[in-house]
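Notes, Module 5: Reading structure tokens.

Key idea: the token line is not a picture. It is a compressed description, and you learn to read it the same way you learned to read a sequence, by spotting repeated patterns. We will look at two proteins. The first is printed below with its tokens.
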Amino acid sequence: MIELSVRIGLPDAKTATAMLLWLDTEHLAAVCAAGAIDARVVRLDAAQGSDSGTAGVTLVARYRFASRAAFAHYEQVHAPRLRAEGLARFPPESGVRYSRTVADIVAEAPTSFEG
């Protein structure tokens, strides 16, 4: 399994709110429709987000793909369009900073709901 993580440094709370709304209502579902098996967004604690180059909020969008082949298909066919949509809404000139990592998931534990 492959995980794509996109770290998003946002300059202020207003931009962070707009970004989160777009991710939650449009983008995550679009990436899943394009091949991811699931997607989530986390907001880093302020101390962890400080190295993003902004004084604002840092979000990380995480997408899992079933295989390297599924991820490669996403990258070749769908990612250019989806990235362009995001950059059109939140260009680097607006103070938004992006970085991405791709990783093999090498171990997972099953989810437990015991309380």
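Here is the second protein, with the sequence above and the tokens below, as before.
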Amino acid sequence: MQDLRLTWLPFLLAAGLAAQTAQTIRLPNATLPSGESAIPLASSPSRYQQWYSANDLRLAARVPMRIRSLAFLAGNVLQNGSTLDIEIRMAHVLPSQFPSTTFDNNLAIDNTLVIPRGVVTLAMRPAAGTRVFTFNFVREFAWNGSSGIVIDMKVFGNGNGNNSYLYPCQTTTFSPGQTVRLFASGPPTSLARATTVQDGIGLLTEFDYVEGVTVSFGTGCPGSGGLVPVASTSGGLPIPPNGAWTQTLSNVAPLASTVLVVGTSQTAFGSIFLPYDLGQLGFNGCWLRVEPVVFFPTTSSAGSFASVPMPVPGITLRRRSLFTQWFVLDTGAPNGVLAASQGLWHAFG
């Protein structure tokens, strides 16, 4: 059988190679520390959210990533650290969305519990600029490469009698459009709305991450029975070497002709901007979301499933990306011809 790597790999390698290393980004991006704040780590019980802009993330990371931990940096600490009873969640926010004063509204997209409630111990008199604690996630948060993010911190207690004390972390005090912080004091589970919203102010945050992730973008168009085909992968992550990596399709008509389209762009195909409305070609409701460079035709199974193996070779592909989308010939589709999946962005580790 033909090694499918020989089909898709050459045009990916044309962009060049880079060695893989552990990564840390600091947000807000390109901002010097200009203040410090004891909120929320050394304040009374509270709920705290901090928003980071999509532009800052794209400048810092450029491709989707799996965030594994976060940390804040010590200010000019005058007191020793204490314990902290805390829970942390993360979520995506739309690139154009400014945070809502209603906390839960900011957790509507990919809400992920990254730190279950528990007690941690902050560093004793840490040197300014060093980490006061690194919150290692129990579940990675996969940033989608295009949206902003928000962290949601519920502080149930601080080991100092729940009284505020002098244990500041470094902040930015003028980064409008880059970060926003929102908070309210009181038992965090009963706090629905922020009483304080400050644009351009927030804790300097270090996110530790690794690459090698697949994320969805856009939407598909329905086929028979109104079902929209769903693209996914199996066999692990796009990290070399991975001979089991496979593109998969579900929610597809049985025994239908399908094709997997592969490209290196989700924004342009020659002079054509993506996504491209295929309604102009008679396929109403469907959009081309990836650059069509390589095609893998196949047929769905009787169980309404299709797959194409794409083994990843054992060479460095860090910061290289592939974009894929499935199309299905389906006379039962609302347009009478075609159904399509959403797009997938594969960022190699």
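Summary for the second protein:
- The mean pLDDT is 92.
- The helical segments are 5-13, 54-61.
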